[in-house]
Amino acid sequence: MPSLDRKESASLYLQTIQALDDMLQALVMEDMDPNMPILQNFLEIILPWLILSEKVHEQTRALGTIAQMLRFICNFPELSHMMEFSMSGKLIGILGLFCLNANYEISTGASEALHYLFKILVLHRSMKQKTEAILKDLQKHFRGGWFANIQSLTMFFRKYLTPEERADVIMVSMEAMTNANRHDVCAASKMLKMILKYSMPEIGKVPEIIQYICHNMNSITETTAQGTIKKILYLLAQTYTDEVILTLFKMDDQSQRGVHKPWEILASFPKGYEVIMEFLLQKLAPHQKSKGQEPSHGMEISPLIATRAIHELLLEPSRRMEVQTFFSSLFMALLFRISFLVLEGDTDIQDQQHATEWVDPVSSSMEALKTLMLSTGYGDYVSYVQKLGAWELLTSPERHYEGVTLLARTMVIKNCWHNRPIFSLIIRMLQEQDYTNHLTALVFMTELLRCPGVAAIVDEAAVRILADWFHSEEPATVKLLLQVVGIFAKHRNMVRQLHILQPHLLHCCYSQDSAIVMEALAALRCLTEHLSWQHSSSFLTQLTFTLGPFFEEESEQLRLMAFETYRALLAKVKRTVLVFPLKHQVLNLIVLLVLHLEDMNISVAQICRPALCRTAAILGWSRLKVIFAEKDVWTILRALLRQEANKALWFLKQCTTLFKSPQAPIRQAAVRFAGQIIQTLDAEEAGDIEEVYAALRSMREDPDPMVSCLATQTLYILEAQEKLLVNTPTSCFCSRRPRKGYS
């Protein structure tokens, strides 16, 4: 600068500066309008003199030149290639920082340049009808203080900049934070604090911002600046969770070392931690759409990346209380993820792209689940599950559900506090009849029901949701529900809700799937053993009729279960409650019980004798009870027929039914007893048994030769006896009419 006494030199200097400014303005023109890419080239040359210089006069001169060029541009309503001018954000960031400079000339120069830049943006980006009012308001703050400038900057940041330009403003400010000059650091923090004070508008270049934060985090030592950087990361993670997490893992995978500091920062904001976790939870289920956020720039978190992110956040010890609040949903989501991967395989293309040799989706999910349990204080559960071998079973496609069962059983044995919230969550999930992970949910819930605390909260609404699943065509689902019925019978609270499930249980007895029928009978046996007659008399009475067909099942196991159930049922019946229709059915099964003392299954035969004794007791047959307990089949039948002669036709009908038994010894005994009964009938009774004779004639074709032979012999004996009676004129048989031929 010239000295004051050299006015001529000073005048020449000012004229030279003006000439240079005029020359730049002329060079920036293209035809009649300014060329914005040329302006950008000039600014890129001038800005280093402002940013890198430590001399005030050089910085002032650079700011003056920028201000004059921008002022010149303001005079033109049309600008050439305005869309190619890409440094508005960078320029606003730089000028905004220099507005906070301690030097008055520098701050004033920056304020003036910023004013003209704002004016250009208003002229070319605002609605025409509002342009004049905005310019007037902007003029009021021309060369105003730093606060007015920052207020204007905040408004323009939100309303006039593109997402990429906003990112440039943030990047410029963060670069200033790494400066050794404390004033620059404070200025950058102050500016960022103002522009991020309200809800964050759309931001571009998120990966670049995240990468810069991660690479320069350790070099930012000033406390305020550290807080500002953390807030930027937190706000970006809330709004652009996909991009932030993908960038962190990309950096982690490329360096093959933990980028741990950003995860620590994300975990340091309680509210944000919960928001991010909820977002990641939605990403774990491929069939569910995440709510509230749309992925930008084609970047979206895959389930694998979501799992890894959850694992990283769970490793942070500062958020243990927050983990407790969403343990249930996170636990089940990870378990469902493991089930999906093990049973169906990872079909997600993004997962396949993100998976590497050292990141296996199943292992990643398993580690996240273990970490969740450890971070919630369930470390001993993890060890116990390991002791049971459940972790290995969970990864086996053939035995996966065994692992799920053992995991749930551990929660029950250890009396986990979260059992009840998990149960409530599963019930809400099962409200959707097409829920993808319903089988895993049902397996886990079936074990949880064994927990007294869970049993205490089972209400009618929950039971009705379970009842709806009986309509499933999947056998595995129905078998699990039948197990649930058995568990219900063992808990006093749930017994009250059993009436909702009982019709479905009885219906399952008629299933075409033998495994379902087997499970249904097992459930019926369990119910019979645990229910009281006082509260379940109607159901138990109905059960005596339902069991009828199963007494003659070819499957020994089904037959045995039917007899075991009937024995347990008889044990609950007292003479005082033995009324129609129960009494009728008990009497209707007398002959069946006697003849099954000849059952090929020794266990069935052993059950029938005490069942007969119990029947005699409740019917008040004291003499027969002694015979039932000790004598053979034929002694019992003769005694029964002698004492209850008035029921001979009923017994004969029971015998005829047993002609169809799959067991030859039963058919043989039935034919023999039928023959004995017929011989005791009087003329009136004998006239009503044409169907019995027809059945006997058909038995001559029985595949078993002994049965066929016995049927033939019985018919001959009956025919001979009939002839004898007809030819003997005694008063006793005078009314007896000749019968049709037996052959």
Feature tags:
disordered C terminus; two-stranded antiparallel ribbon; mainly alpha; 2 strands; 743 residues; 71% helix
Task: Set out the fold topology.
Blueprint: H1 7-27, E1 29-30, E2 33-34, H2 36-51, H3 56-73, H4 88-99, H5 104-125, H6 128-140, H7 146-159, H8 163-177, H9 182-195, H10 206-216, H11 223-239, H12 241-255, H13 260-267, H14 270-284, H15 303-314, H16 320-325, H17 327-344, H18 349-354, H19 361-375, H20 379-388, H21 390-394, H22 400-413, H23 419-430, H24 438-448, H25 452-455, H26 460-468, H27 475-488, H28 492-495, H29 498-508, H30 514-530, H31 533-546, H32 556-572, H33 582-588, H34 590-595, H35 602-619, H36 622-630, H37 633-643, H38 648-657, H39 664-680, H40 683-686, H41 690-698, H42 705-727
Antiparallel strand pairs: 1-2
Helix pairs in contact: 2-3, 3-5, 4-5, 4-7, 4-8, 5-6, 5-7, 8-9, 8-10, 10-12, 11-12, 14-15, 15-19, 17-19, 17-23, 19-20, 20-22, 22-24, 23-24, 24-27, 26-29, 27-29, 27-30, 30-32, 32-35, 35-36, 38-39, 39-42
Explain briefly what this protein structure is.
With 743 residues, the protein is mostly helical. It is built from 42 helices and two strands.
Describe this structure in words.
There is one protein chain. The radius of gyration is 45 Å and the shape is rod-shaped. Helix 2 (36-51) packs antiparallel against helix 3 (56-73), helix 3 runs parallel beside helix 5 (104-125) and helix 4 packs antiparallel against helix 5. A hairpin with a 2-residue loop joins strand 1 and strand 2 (33-34). Mean pLDDT is 84; it is low at 287-297 and 730-743. It has 42 helices and 2 strands. By secondary structure, the protein is mainly α. It starts with 6 loop residues before the first helix and ends in a 16-residue tail after the last helix. A two-stranded antiparallel ribbon has the order 1-2. The protein is 71% helix and 1% strand.
